[in-house]
Design a protein that fits this description.
Length: about 250
Amino acid sequence: MSAKSTAVSHETVREWIRLSQAGDQEARSRMVESNVRLVWSVVQRFINRGHDADDLFQIGSIGLLKAVDKFDLSYSVKFSTYAVPMIIGEIQRFLRDDGAVKVSRSVKELAVKVRRSKEKLANSLGRLPTISEIANDLEVSIDDIVLSQEASRAPTSIHETVYENEGDPITLLDQMASNEEEQWFHQLSLKEALLTLEKRDRVIIFLRYYKDFTQSEVAERLGISQVQVSRIEKRVLQSIRDWLGDAKEA
């Protein structure tokens, strides 16, 4: 498969998307042909994992077409900015379902130790231990503990449902975007932004949005006040939006 693609204007891309969403197969094909290089750029991240590159390209193209179908033309966002996380997500799901994405043995072992330490400390303390207490017990960092727990979960994206409210799916995007103008936030996976956070901030966001903890529950786990959690959460969410702002303008 050639990585050659055709450069087209922003206006043309948006027109092809509009036509494609209306059922025009020719416009749909043009979107694939004009984004070959984009899909290949993502595929390069996943080579040497036991799968043929052309197969991964086909999977990535499915993600591209899903991005075409879901792209909201009411926002002035570059299609490529929106499409890349969709392509990555499609390939990750394929690799995960095929068993190609594996958690390292050391991380798995730490996850087991964390569970045992939690049970031991809960028995001795008469309550659930904080993450700090588990970290001290195992002599590892808080970040290592959180990441070991996270690694056992499927990769999470802000496109995915966090929970359902009376049958209506609620995504991480719904929780984090404070108003309609910030809906551009759905262009990037949350994990990329999380990598920029300090350890405690990352733990708070993980517990709040991955584990669905209340602010009071997070405060109890970390040994701080609910007010502190609220302030930190607001600051962190704003910093994530600011960080993603550069991608929005790209």
